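Hi W.,

Here's what went into the run:
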Amino acid sequence: MTDLTLHLKVTDFYTRYAESICDGDIETWPEFFTEKCLYRIIPRTNYDRKLRIGPMFAESKGALKDRVVAIKETLVYSARSITHIVGGVRILNTEGHLLKTRSMLAIYQTLVDGTTQIQLVGRTFDSIDVGDGTPKFNERIVVFDSELLAGALVFPA
Amino acid sequence: MSVQQLGSELKPLKFWSRDDCSRIPQWVYSDTENYSQELERIFYGPHWHLIGLATETPNTGDFKRATIGERSVIMTRTDSGDISVLLNSCAHRGVEICQAKFGTQKEIMCPYHQWTYDLNGKLMGVPFRRGVKGKGGFPADFDTSKHGLRTLKVENINGAVFASFDHNAPPMKEYLGDENYKYLIRIFNGRPVKAIGYQRQRIKCNWKLYMENIKDPYHASLLHVFLISFGLYRIDQKGETVTDARTLSHNVFASIRNPPGETSGTEEMKSFRENLKLHDMSIVQATKEYDDDVTIQIQTIFPDLVLQQQGNSLQMRYVIPMGPNEFELLWTYFGYEDDTEEITLRRLRQANLTGPSGFVSVDDTEVLEYSRAGIGPNPSNDAVLELGGREAKPPADGNMVTEGPIRGFYQYYRQVMKQEGTGF
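Here's what came out:
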């Protein structure tokens, strides 16, 4: 695969990933990950100090499915629309079938009766497994700039 | 009588409709004058506030910025190895001296006119004290010893650092009462603790509603579908409710998780989901760390701190008021310095229950904002708190089917806020 084809494939993957969260089909979200994935959302202040606490942490696709069950079945929250703007997708290096990648991310949230607010901005440091033809996140670390969040962060990033 | 004397629906007279605290007038959640009185009497009065963990500033000169009420303070490790907590406002013109969250400095210097203080807040020097080429300068009798940074009273309890603006605040052990103190040092037991990370959220509701939320086991068994459906909490689980006898405003719920499969009490829980199973059980698998079997300890320390053990997740939630209608919730997650990677991972996994995306905490964040929406426009209404009776005293058998701790909070609150000639 040429560099350009691979880049297009990765960009397309990021786009479809964002759509899975934003377009109301959250159940498809875990399918963008490998079985033994690492997933974390973390404020930059913790990340820079090598502290690992953040709003979400999962070490398996199963844990991401549990997050989906919580979002759909158990959590109490008001209705909202989420829009991800993804940019700056770049392949940093390739090791076998693993691509180290990064991207810039802005998430907008709109509550019922509310104007649109920026919920989170940051960067993602990822590892994508392209082994079986369909890319999947082997690792996704979302580092967001403001450790201060407005209210709850219900949906994944 | 004129309307002014009677009050009106939106500007009610500030009184409490009953002597007991089974009714809470809703203006206490929105009135700005009342709020500023709270800052003065509660936050800057003889009460203790969590500043941080001593290990956050291990070496001489290390500092951390913290907040009490609306005031910024600086916690610093001094030359003697003690911890000072100083008002973050220059004694010269009031400028906030320190903006960094953490750092290290030999002395504390205001960026504006470079007034310089030692690590205990003592003013060491001011530029141009004798003027320039014989011109200007400070009066000969200017006394630097009278212009230090305001110092707070500090107590370090096995690594948890508390401070008070009022040097007459009773020592923490007396402040909390023996029973509550016992639970504080169950967690801060002398094993050195370390922060494993922070989370912060802004929640649009009055700060007191957060403390009420934590003092309210009623909602925990109803609102938190995740907890009840996965068997992590039941209102009937074995435990105790401890309330400080002096103030009634510090309290602990300590309980032991029911054996798996036991579902009594769920018939009245409309939100109970029987068939939910976790794909990844690791977030609810805790190991025993203490000498007892307590799996959940939730302690509220008046006015603004929650200390929680949920399995292996240890957190402090600190409430920072921002006007009557908003507060910041600062979460400090911690462990012990000698933790293995395995136990740290348990703490990190179990942290998924709490914080801005917590499987349990999201519910509270959202509902508190609904509280603000419902309460704000209706200051003349009363909240009704009669679960477990009308008294503020804790139930003799320690059961958790009670709103007693909330009534206790307000009994003390009224005592602190009481003003002559009002209906408080």
